[in-house]
Amino acid sequence: MIIPLFCAFLIPVLGKFKDGLAQVAANIMAAALFLLSVISIGSLSRGMVVYSVGGWKAPFGICMVLDGLSVLMLIVVNLIGFLSLLYSVDYIKRYSHTELYYTLFCLLIAGLNGVVISGDLFNLFVFLEITSIASYALVAFGTEAEELEAAFKYLVLGSVASTFILLSIGMILGNVSTLNMADISRSLDFSRSGALIRYCLALFIMGFGLKTALIPFHAWLPDAHPAAPAPMSAMLSGVVIKTIGVYALIRVIFNIIGFSQIVSSILISLGIVSMAGGVLLAIGQWDFKRLLAYHSISQIGYVIFGIGLGTPLGIIGGLFHLFNHSLFKSLLFLNAGAVEYSIGTRRLEKLGGLSSNMPVTGATSLIASLSIAGMPPLCGFWSKLIIIIAAFEANKIIGAWVAIIVGVITLASFIKVQKYAFSRKADDKALSGAREVPFWMKLSMIILAVLCVAVGVFFAPFIRTIIEPAVRVLLDGRLYVETILGK
Questions:
Q1: Cα-trace Rg, the chain
Q2: What is the rounded average pLDDT of the residues 235-244?
Q3: Are 255 and 474 in contact (CB under 8 A)?
Q4: Fewest CB within 10 A of the end CB: N or C in the chain?
Q5: What does the DSSP assignment read for 318-333?
């Protein structure tokens, strides 16, 4: 958290001396953060790590917590952040004031990391707001009418979501007189304000649901994705909506308020509606990035549906799909950015024959398309399969069949993408002269494509090493409380 904050203040100074120093500093920062995230996997064998800021122990002081769920999210945040910044080396040259872009990106990563490791609700909210404000600015970075309109809509609805979350935090503070997550959980065991807590839970679901862009809280996302620069679109879909939406919501539900049958029913319903609604809205789209934006809504529906089942297998599938979605959806947005960078349009009906002239973009897009559609042995297949099996085991037959049918429609949608953008013969002479994107953009796409294949092939050890420790954090809320409070 300190590294990207320091880098955000350093970059404007470096930009005054020499062009290019800002992107070097940002990429070194991102590489260091990803390395630290990988190293943090080793801490899982020692259990939860709690750092008390200033030496003040919880619940009186601020604490930062590293557990299995935090490690999973740190890897997601810093992996996609690093690859997005690597992609930006060539991509961002089309914009002016690049040092401001890198400053905002560093603040974005700092906020995301802060949300993941915060041990109290108010600090989680502060870092959530840092993330949100940086996101609003990055969506509007092109400063054209489309970008400004999308960013304004995102800002308004994001502010509504933040108001719901802050109001809920304030009511919880007034009820239990503490902000530490573990202490709130312990205090709620003795609280008699059941109706108030249920109301706070409803506010959290609406607030974080807006941040996640679940249906019916999704109105901002289809405009924000197409308007943002491609690396920001990758971050927005692959990281931001998961961290300040899904992660924050499940942390509050499982480790603070407590999972219940009512909560399960709400999450399952939101997941099913988002799965089906997102894919049906996506299949008729001809703007490449807008199509991907609606698929983000659909795929997050899988995540919420799996976690909402509340069973160990369902949570494994949900968290595994959360990770997988960060890979293939970030890759697809980078592919869309590469197409627009080379051709100047995202309209599928105006594209064609790009596989021959842009072989790296075409091949990586095919891998990502097959992965999001759930084709074996790619990573998306296994997480969807686990969620569907978990749904049948939990006797959620309708949800299981919806997940299967949505997978088929997703495949049809991406067959359309591959046909119109990459496979069919190009009629326009401008398309026949298309060229592959520069090296750093290609490298980012290749790494993500390799990860889609590798995680699919080696899914069993990956689940055992990364996913299962995160699942245990959610299933054993008592251990979270006892470790932090030392009781």
A1: 21
A2: 86
A3: yes
A4: C
A5: HHHHHHHHHHHHHHHH
Residue type at position 14: L
Could you report the per-residue pLDDT of 423-446, keeping only the tens digit for each? 877 666 556 667 888 889 999 999
Give helix 379-393 / helix 359-372 axis angle, nearest 10°.
10
- Find all residues with CB under 8 Å of 228, minimum gap 6, and list them: 138, 139, 141, 147, 150, 236
Structure tokens at 286: 């001809």
Q: Count Cα atoms within 13 angstroms, Cβ side, for 464.
A: 4
Query: Which residues on adjacent β-strands are paired with residue 65?
Result: 50
Whether 244 shows a pLDDT value over 70: the answer reads: yes
Secondary structure letter of residue 41 according to DSSP: G
CB atoms within 10 A of CB 482: 14
Place of tokens 């060539």: 90
pLDDT digits (tens, 9 = 90+) for 98-121: 888 899 999 999 999 999 998 888
Two structure tokens written together for 155: 């800002």
pLDDT-based confidence at residue 420 (cuts at 50, 70, 90): confident
Q: Taking the domains of the chain in order of start, what are their residue ranges?
A: 2-485
Longest dimension (CA), the chain: 72
Neighbours of 174 (CB within 10 A): 10
Cα distances from 369 to residues 276, 329, 332, 373, 414, in angstroms, run: 18, 9, 8, 6, 6
